[in-house]
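Researcher: For the record, we're logging two predictions in this thread. I'll number them. Prediction 1 follows.
Model: Prediction 1, sequence and structure:
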Amino acid sequence: MWTCPICSQQFVNNNQSHSCKEKELPDFLNGKTAHTISLFWYFVEAYKKIGKVTIHPTKSMIAFAAKTRIAYVTRLGKDFIDIVFPFQEQHADNLCFHKIAQVPGTRQFNHHFRMQKKEDINEEIISYMKLAYKQGQ
C-alpha cells in the first residue's frame, strides 16, 4: 500500500493519481436537505456494519474504499443519493440497479443504484455491498 504524503489516502499503486484534498466531505453535504444527508450517513453506517471502510472525497464524487475503492456516491439530490458499485462482471438479474454500464475499454461494469429512503438498503443491496467489499479487499 502507498500512502499519499499530502492527504494520507492509501492506494494499492505507488504514486497513484488522485484529487488530493481538492474537496472535503462538507463540500458535498453543504446545502443538501436533511433527508439527503440522513440517507448518506445511513449508507455510511450500513457499510461500516459490513467492514472497515474509508471515505475519500474526490473532485466530483465521494468514494468508499476497503483496500481498493468499492462504491461511489455520484450525486446527492434533493431527496435521493445516487451510488455506483463497480464490478468486474455484470449482475443483470436484480431488482436494485436501474442501470448497468460497462466502462469502455475495461472489464468494469458500473451498477447504478438510487437510494430514496432508508428502506432501500435491503437484503438485496446489502448482498451487493458485501460483494463489492469482498472484491475490494
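Researcher: Logged. Prediction 2.
Model: Prediction 2, sequence and structure:
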Amino acid sequence: MAELIVAFDLPSGREALALAGRLPGLRWAKIGPVLFGREGPPLIKEFTQRGIRVFLDLKWHDIPNIVAGAVTAARELGVAMTTIHCLGGRAMLTAAAQAAGGAGSDLALVGVTVLTSHDAGELEGILGRGVPDVGFEAERLARTALHAGLRGVVTSGQELGLLREALGADPWIVVPGIRGPGETPGDQVRTIEPGEAVRRGATHLVVGRPITAARDPLAAYQRLVEALD
C-alpha cells in the first residue's frame, strides 16, 4: 500500500508541529528548504521523537564530495528519506548512495528526475536540446539513479506508469503534485489524483497545500488516507 507524506511547507516549526499533532496516524513529514532553513535540525529531531519519519527534501545538486557530506549529515540526524537531483550525474549519485549507507541503511535516497513544475518546453531550455518526450527523460535519469545505488526516484504522476513498468516492482517511486478533482494545480504543471497514482504504482504520495491550505486540514487529510486505503 502506498504511504502518505504530508509536506509541511509552513512558515514555522511551531505551526508544522501543531498541524502534525492534529493528524492521527501520521507516519511521514516532508521538510523542505524553507522550513529547514528557518528551523534546522531541531525540527527534524522533534518529528522523529514523535515517531514520525522525516523526508528531508532539499534536492542536493553539487560536486560529489559536498553531496556525500550532506547525505551523511542527514543520516546522522535520523532522516528516513532525502532527495538529490539526478542531473548531478553518475559520480555524484554514486557518492551520495555510498554515503547513505547502502541497501540496508535506515536512510532511503531518492533521485529527482524532472520537477513537476517543468513541461517539455522548459526542460528543453535547461538541457539545450529538443525534448520530444518528458517521460523518456525521466526514465533515462531514473535508470541512472538506480544503477548508482539509489533506493528510488521522484517523478510526476504523468511519468509514473512508464517508470514503474520500466524499473520493475522494487524501487520506491515518490510522487508529488497530488491533487483531487477540481483542486488547483498551483505551480505544479504535471499533477495526478491520489487513487490514480496508487493504481500506476506509486509507493509514496507527497501532499502539501491540499492539506495545509485547506479550510479543514484534518478532513482533507482523512479523505486522502481513505483514498489510499
